[in-house]
Amino acid sequence: MQKILVTGGCGYIGSHTIVDLIENGYDVISIDNNSRSNPEIMQGIAAITGKSIKNYKVDLCNFEETQAVFQENTDIDGVIHFAAFKAVGESVENPLLYFNNNIVSLINIVKCCDIFSVPHFVFSSSCTVYGNPDESPVTENTQLKKATSPYGYTKQVGEEIVEQSAAAGIFNATLLRYFNPVGAHPKGHIGELPIGKPANLVPAITQTAIGKLPQMQVFGNDYPTKDGSCVRDYIHVCDIAHAHTLALHRLSKNKQEEACEVFNLGSGNGYTVFEVIDTFEKISQTKLNFSVAARRPGDVITIFANNEKAQEKLSWHPRFNLEEMMQTAWNWEKQLDNLK
Length: 340
Ligand code: UD1
Description:
This protein is α/β, with parallel strands linked by helices and 340 residues long. Helix content is 41%, strand content 17%.
């Protein structure tokens, strides 16, 4: 049984990926300092899989503590590195926090992979690396533009660090560029747990509908899109999670065509903010309280994926449509409310 270290295992995408890995026969350990996540999510993972996962509460910016985890687990076959800060607005206000946290942690984990000869590495990247693209869909070969935020820049630099480490022979690597992950596990035990007021669209919608937030804002209705709101590629978090398992399969079967490969993980469909709200209102049979506000600084107008490379080379085929994404997100929000 292959042992995989997941960093950020208590986070939104990390926790869903752990479930997928366990269901596909992997042995998993996690490192998460819980600075932006809730360790209770491990109970949700156990409720779905019947397995208890060990989480090391370690800050990856601390090299000695990180190295100690590898010393205790000398049989790690692969690392999936999720742990990072991801709030675009916060990164604009405090860029050094993002450069320090996201880059130092990555360097430390790559160093450990080198010292302990870990052969496979998967990096959580983002469509944010494309900046404001000239056209969509974007393919993996679309030119990367200047990042629109310090957060986005840490993903661009992160990709370079991983790619050049792979070129130097430290490991074989996969960069996964997520578009907009949303939704929750259909069994309902895990989902997104935003700390404080949610910055992302779907938790803002569900928290408003349940009454945690009085009203939500649509940031801009005067963009050059079909209804004036921004266009994004929403993709179910379980589809994103499964792509990590497939990336590990490809790495361990040595099918890589290059030491470092990159894949877009999006559904291939672009939806406007108003379309997402309409879909939510339809599946939840509620009327959402929203108002139109000014454009949010740093927002890209339109971006959606060409996902053919992931379909072809990873055999990755997204299974959830927008209705299912919104339904599972809504079920999760209602369940959280019941636990109160
Ligand atoms: C951005 C990044 C993504 C990153 C994510 C992390 C880009 C293209 N995408 O996603 O890579 O992983 O942040 O947080 O840079 N919206 C509202 N009202 C709200 C919240 C959002 O109208 O209360 C709108 C936004 O203006 C945007 C869309 O909803 O048009 C999606 O926003 P959000 O969920 O925050 O994700 P991105 O900004 O696309």
